[in-house]
Each structure stands twice: as C-alpha cells, then as structure tokens.
C-alpha cells in the first residue's frame, strides 16, 4: 500500500519551503536581529510534521495528468505554510507555549525575553506578538505563492476562490471551537461535528485535494467528488485524532494528558458528557493537574459508557461516505484505489 | 487647497468595502451567529477613519492617467482592509480593548462573553481569538482583491511584490515596536526612527502611492520617487501624530493621556528620556494612573528640554526630503503640487 509520505514531490515541497525561508531570513537581516530570529523560528515551526496536505495536492494533481511540477509544488507548499500559520495563531489563542514537548514559537520568544531579564507579563506579550506576526506573514505568503502562478486565468481564479473559502471556513471553525471551549456558546452535538469539519477537515483534506485537481484541469464533477471525500475523511481523521488523544500509546509524540488538561470539546468528549453518570468526567476534564490515573479512569468511563464505540462507528460511517463519494467515473480508477489507501491510513492510524 | 478627503473615488472605496462586508456577513450566517457577529464587528472596525491610504492610491493612479476605475478602487480598498487588519492585531498585541473611546473588537467580544456569565480570563481569550481571526481574514482578503485583478502580468506581479514587501516591512516594524516597549531590546535613536518608518510610513504612504502609480503603468523612476516621498512624509506624519498624542487639543478624538499610559517609545519620548533630568519623565510614562496634571508636567518637561523643538525640526527635515524626492520630471507637475498639499496636511495637521 502506498502511503502519503511516499508521494513523489514531497521532498520538493520541503526544499521549496526551505528556499522560501532562506530568502526571507536573508531579507530580514536588514530589519534587525529579532526579525531575523522571527523568521528562523517560523521556519522551525514549519519543519517536521507529516506534510500530508502537500502530498494530497500533489497526488491529486498527478491523478489528473498535471505536468507543471513547479506550479504543483508551489500550491502544495502554500498549504503547508497555511497549516503552520494556523498552528501559530492557534497556540496564541489557546495560550500554549509548548508543542511536541518543546517550546513553540510563543514559548521560544518568551524564554528569550526572560533570559534578558524581562518580566513574565511583558515576556508573554513578546511571545504572543511574535507568533501573531509570524502567522500573519505566512498567511500572506501562502496566498502569494498561488497568486503568482503563471497558469490560466480560470485556474488562477478557481484556486483563489478555493483559498479564500479555505481561510473563511477554517476561521469559522476556530472561532466556533473557542466559543465552545470558553462556554460563550453551548453547542448541540451536530454543532460540535460541524466545528470539526470547518476547523480541520476543510483545509487539511478537502481543499488540498481540490486544489491539486483544479490546477491539473479536472472537471467540476471530479472536484465536487474530491470535496465530498475530503470532507468526510477529514472528519474521520480528526475523530481518530481525538481518540488517540485519550487512548493513544504515546506513538503520536503527544501526551495523552494534554487533551484532557486542555478540556477540548471534541465530539468524543461532548457525547460522553451528555451521558448519565458523567460527573467524574466533567470534574476531570480541563484540570491542569490531571494525572495518569485520572486518564485511566476517563478511559474506563469512555469505554463503559460506549463513547469510544460511538466514535469508532462515526469514523466508519464517514469513511464509507467518503468512499461512496469517489465511486464515480469522474475519478480515475487508479486514483480511487489510492484514495481508498488514504482513507484507510486516516482512519486506522495509530499515530 | 485640495485635501485627501476630497479625492474622487473615496466614496467608491467606502461602497466597495461595504459590499465586501455585506457579502461576507451573508456567507457567514451558514456558520452560526458568532461568526456572523465577527464579520459585523470587522466591518465596524473598518468604518470611520480618514481613508487616506485609499485616497493616496487613487490620486497617484489618476496622476499617471489610469482609467480602470474598478481596478484602482479594488487596490485602494485592499489597503484599507490591510490597515484594519493591522489595527486589529495591534490591539491584541497591546492588550487594548478600547479604540476612539469605544470598545474595539476585542472589547466587544469580551463584553459579550461577560454578559453571558463567562469569567474574565475566558472572556479575554474569546476577545483576543476573535480579533486574531478577524485580522487573519482581512489580511487574506486584502491580497485576494489584488490577486484577482484582470490587469497585465507585469502589473500584477509588481503589485504582488509591493504587497508582500508591505506585509514584511510592517511586521518588522511592529515586531521592533514590541521589542522596544517590552524592553527585550534597548534601541538607539536611529532604531526608533527606523521602527517608525517600517511600522507606519511604509504601508500608510509609500506603498499606497506606489501601488496607484504601478497600476497606472508609471515608470520605475516615478515609482522610486513616490517611494522616497512616501517614506519621508510618512515618518513626518507619525512624528506629528506623536506630538499630537501629548500636546493635542483633543480634536484627534484621542485622549492625550493614552500615549503616556501606554508608555509608547516614540522618537519624541526616546529623545527626551536620554536628556539629563528626565527621571520624572521615566517615572510618569507607562503608569496606568497618569493624570491631567502629570501630562501637563510632561509637556513642560518636553518643552523645556527642547524635545518638542527637536521633533518639530525632524518633521521639517523629512518634509523637505520628501519634496526634494518628487522634484523630478518623472512626476507630473500638477501632481507635484498635489503632493505638496499632502505634505502640508501631513505635517501641519492639528487632528
């Protein structure tokens, strides 16, 4: 089975990203040490990760016979920049200073300020300002890469529409997520599901697949089918992520306590909290001092109440919907098989 | 003397802005009440103000005989969106919840959360998240308006370069500003001046004038001259703004205490602080409880130490440099006269 990481061209995306940041860092030196440092940290934030959004762009592009490699790599890189920008602003919003066990951009600049004897409040201002500005720059650059393509007017227009929609929907999802986690809004289950789609599925699956196909000149029916597939598989991916956040074995490199501590309102937790006898769950979730024992108890509760089973069923349902959407002559058969592989990887992954 | 506010087409920009926000608000309804509210608040944030950046785009465009009114209005509107985005993110970074005496976007969403019984910390998260996301959306849309223009490939490319430079330089200026105000960096005078140019002059004067001229097909020499003019006059404008922030008569609609309370490191204050006997100044600036009497004492100090005179001289010097830059046949004579008017307004204004 081919995996997304094997996608031809992902190495080119990593190279393109690297060249982009080198150019910016070089330019930044004229604006002082701190601004150069900011670009360096932004580059660091873009490194690592699975690069599966660029891989989706490239694989869809190839499926429809696209042969302008440079254009495909530019669009693929744009999605990775957008992803990095979203993470940077997400961290500011959530007040996170750590990612994957190391200081994130906010944390790096906070530490730097403290090392210079700056107080905690001001150090936090410095860290947050740095991440806000870095995100702004990457949001702009993501679009600049697409806007500069020398492609037909129709393709450019369709890609710009897609990117604008992508920002719009993702921002809507992030806004809803914060509304729920701050208790500004009290959602029903379907709203938590919609938030998941807007915040993650749209820009991570739907838009990259569609962008690759559009750039290669695929027809409307194909683009619509990929949109349906991406939406459903993106939701399934996120639901799997939520399960791994609690039941994971640590292979994700992510603590199985952080989701609990953050009190994230995932469909999993929302469903569980609505069940009778979930008082213990409510008390545990969102506490800063959650222990391994607390997590184990939460796991037991989620199993006993059927919440885990419920989410597994949801993942299955979305996977079936995704596969049904691409069962059309508009999607080349070989690519249908590849999308089956992607669906499998997204739903079954253990990391 | 013609004023910028009289510029033909500014009303079209206001209409274009209004249509843009109407479309977004209508689309947002599918994403719930809060996201619709976010767009409504973003529109509100873009209203009022002098709209002088769009006016600069339009007036330069006309000077070089541009006749694609729709394209000029789109570029002019893009600069106003960018300006609004910068203000929104600025407010988050500075922790400001009020602008022109009324709650800004952060403050509006914070109040809304508190009205719903949400605690202070969470309400602040909600307010800041809302402003970060609104700014992200406007940064994207500003560029989308330019990227979608049906103009020649050369003009599009030059405009995209200009916009990317604009984001880059403004972010550098904002980053430096925060570095200085948090004491992460201890600048020398020339660095405070550079920060002023990067943060304000570039996107407020230099880039809008150049964008209008480029769109109309002006030559390199003209574009370079406008850049020089915009840079110098933009610095003069900001220095005047700094003086009005302390010595203003309230006509600006801005309190003459807020700059003092915020402890902003302007060239004015930086110069004054370096002089002997400025201990009282250091103690007063940045205090939250600054009174009218404190401000009066600061005014006396700035006068007595010659700081005000020093900045007035700087304004004059930059004004002369600006006018010298446009004394070239590459700039039409009638437009040179108009730029003299603009220089006068920027340097002499009392509000």
Automatic annotation (TrEMBL), chains A, B:
InterPro entries associated with the record: Isoprenoid_synthase_dom_sf, Polyprenyl_synt, Polyprenyl_synt_CS
Cofactor(s) needed: Mg(2+)
Annotated transmembrane regions: none
The protein, known as: Polyprenyl synthetase family protein
Keywords of this entry: Magnesium, Metal-binding, Transferase
GO molecular function per UniProt: metal ion binding; prenyltransferase activity
Pfam families listed in its UniProt record: polyprenyl_synt
Family per record: Belongs to the FPP/GGPP synthase family.
Annotated GO biological process: isoprenoid biosynthetic process
UniProt source species: Cryobacterium tepidiphilum
């Amino acid at each position: 089975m081919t995996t997304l990481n094997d996608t031809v061209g992902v190495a080119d995306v990593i190279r393109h990203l690297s060249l982009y940041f080198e150019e910016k860092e070089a330019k930044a030196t004229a604006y002082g040490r701190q601004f150069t440092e900011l670009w360096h940290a932004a580059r660091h934030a873009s490194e690592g990760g699975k690069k599966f959004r660029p891989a989706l762009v490239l694989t869809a592009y190839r499926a429809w016979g696209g042969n302008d490699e440079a254009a495909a790599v530019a669009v693929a890189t744009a999605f990775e920049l957008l992803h990095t920008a979203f993470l940077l602003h997400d961290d500011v919003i959530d007040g996170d200073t750590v990612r994957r066990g190391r200081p994130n951009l906010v944390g790096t600049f906070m530490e730097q300020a403290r090392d210079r004897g700056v107080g905690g409040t001001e150090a936090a201002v410095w860290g947050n300002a740095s991440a806000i500005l870095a995100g702004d720059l990457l949001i702009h650059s993501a679009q600049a890469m697409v806007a500069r393509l020398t492609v037909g007017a129709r393709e450019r227009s369709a890609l710009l529409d897609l990117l604008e929609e992508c920002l719009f929907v993702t921002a809507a999802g992030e806004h809803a997520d914060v509304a729920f986690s701050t208790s500004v809004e009290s959602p029903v289950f379907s709203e938590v599901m919609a938030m998941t789609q807007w915040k993650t599925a749209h820009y991570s699956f739907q838009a990259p697949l569609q962008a690759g196909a559009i750039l290669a000149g695929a027809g409307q029916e194909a683009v619509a089918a990929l949109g349906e597939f991406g939406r459903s598989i993106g939701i399934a991916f996120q639901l799997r992520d939520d399960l791994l956040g609690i039941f994971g074995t640590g292979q994700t490199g992510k603590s199985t306590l952080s989701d609990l501590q953050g009190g994230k309102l995932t469909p999993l937790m929302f469903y569980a909290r609505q069940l009778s006898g979930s008082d213990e769950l409510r008390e545990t979730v969102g506490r800063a001092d959650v222990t391994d024992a607390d997590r184990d108890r939460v796991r037991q509760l989620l199993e006993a109440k059927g919440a885990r089973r419920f989410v597994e069923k949801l993942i299955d349902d979305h996977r079936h919907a995704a596969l049904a959407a691409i069962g059309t002559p508009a999607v080349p058969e070989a690519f249908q098989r590849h999308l089956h592989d992607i669906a499998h990887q997204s739903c079954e992954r253990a990391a």
